Backbone:
């Protein structure tokens, strides 16, 4: 559960309070406005779709597809949950009487043909009573660089996909193309929905991979450190995109956690540098030593999170 807190300038919060009114945002700091925006965006999406049951069913399908194809991650430069919800809501608006299966099919065809960076909007961007920034590429220079803008419908409107890089854009478009072809075959009876949800091929797709290891000696420190490293990987990907002959840098959507039980400082150093030959991921080292009649060695736990970036490299002339 993401538990979000925001302080409203009200003496008490009535049970029937709706967060729709923009006047509720007056005199709030930016953190509280952003916190409220999560709930306000969700409510606004549900108000703007013609059929909530069709929207929910098709969104579950699209989210499952995105997770299976490893393109569901805002922090890594793909689309997060709210972005997928807004894309599905837009297709529901275009086809108000369609059932979920038809929405899913049309979703992939339209998204595959979408003329990015034309923004996806559920309603016109509105002005409000606050001196806060609203997404506007004509005014804000940084907004012009958003590659696949999907704009939140609640005031103040923001871009939910500002993390997208050139590489992740190519990957998302490639997946839209694959899915559109499969959905077309399903609609004419020559394909099946199961093909859509085939697992990604990230770990066999590329010849070269970049491995990033974040390591700590306690679980508490590792949680903070690995999260910080994860949040910076899309910046690394952006830098890699400027490297000559590198066609694509594809970050995997999540890291892999492991605990290594090291019986010497050298083992611990090896683990931190990605050398895992002499280490154990269970307590078997100390158990075997005890069974041999000797004192068990001191075990030092090293916590690691490993991230991967697939590299598509063009050969030099």
Residues:
């Amino acid at each position: 559960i993401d538990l979000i807190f925001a302080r409203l300038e009200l003496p008490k919060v009535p049970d029937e309070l709706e967060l729709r009114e923009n006047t509720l945002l007056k005199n709030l700091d930016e953190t509280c406005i952003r916190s409220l925006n999560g709930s306000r965006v969700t409510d606004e999406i549900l108000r703007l779709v013609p059929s909530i049951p069709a929207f929910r069913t098709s969104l579950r399908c699209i989210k499952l597809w995105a997770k299976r194809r490893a393109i569901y991650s805002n922090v890594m430069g793909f689309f997060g949950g709210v972005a997928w919800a807004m894309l599905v809501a837009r297709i529901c608006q275009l086809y108000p009487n369609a059932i979920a299966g038809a929405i899913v099919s049309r979703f992939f065809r339209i998204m595959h043909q979408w003329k990015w960076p034309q923004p996806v909007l559920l309603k016109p961007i509105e002005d409000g009573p606050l001196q806060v920034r609203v997404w506007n590429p004509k005014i804000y220079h940084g907004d012009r660089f958003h590659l696949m803008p999907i704009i939140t419908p609640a005031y103040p409107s923001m871009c939910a996909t500002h993390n997208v890089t050139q590489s992740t854009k190519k990957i998302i478009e490639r997946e839209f193309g694959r899915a559109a072809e499969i959905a077309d075959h399903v609609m004419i009876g020559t394909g099946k929905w199961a093909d859509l949800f085939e697992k990604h091929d990230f770990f066999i797709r590329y010849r070269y991979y970049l491995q990033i290891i974040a390591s700590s000696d306690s679980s508490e420190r590792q949680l903070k450190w690995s999260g910080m490293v994860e949040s910076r990987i899309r910046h690394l990907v952006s830098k890699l995109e400027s490297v000559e002959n590198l066609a694509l840098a594809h970050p995997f959507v999540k890291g892999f956690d492991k605990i290594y039980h090291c019986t010497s400082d050298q083992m611990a150093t090896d683990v931190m540098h990605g050398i895992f030959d002499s280490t154990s991921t269970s307590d078997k080292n100390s158990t075997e030593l005890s069974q041999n009649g000797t004192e068990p060695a001191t075990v030092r736990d090293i916590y690691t999170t490993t991230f991967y970036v697939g590299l598509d490299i063009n050969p030099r002339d």
The beta strands are 208-216, 246-251, 256-262, 300-313. The CA atoms of residues 174 and 235 lie 22 Å apart. Residues 282-291 have pLDDT under 50 and may be disordered. The chain has ten helices and four strands.
